[in-house]
Design goal:
- This protein is mainly α and 92 residues long.
- The protein has a domain of 61 residues.
- The protein is built from three helices and no strands.
- The protein is rod-shaped, with a radius of gyration of 23 Å.
């Protein structure tokens, strides 16, 4: 089984193990790994556990995308020039 898992990882991409924060694509890669692994399970309960792990990683990917979007929105708000208040009766 270990040889197969290694072969799966070669097909999917970089090795699963690592450190640091993961972006959405890395989380989706892990989800894909667990789905591939689930197809090799003979027991239905093992298959279900791998599918559940895949779903959890997909949820993490969605969360990572939301965080990036929020950060981008904050940066855009910080870089926009602030409008000066309009003075009544002023002529241009």
């Amino acid at each position: 089984m270990n040889a197969f898992c290694h072969d799966c990882l070669q097909d999917v991409g970089k090795p699963i193990r690592g450190s640091g924060l993961m972006d959405a694509s890395e989380c989706r890669r892990k989800a894909r790994y667990f789905l591939i692994l689930s197809r090799q399970m003979s027991k239905p309960e093992d298959r279900a556990a791998m599918v559940k792990m895949a779903a959890l990683w997909m949820g993490r990917a969605d969360q990572a995308e939301r965080i990036v979007k929020q950060q981008q929105q904050r940066q855009q708000q910080q870089t926009r020039p602030k409008k000066l208040p309009e003075v009544d009766g002023a002529t241009s």
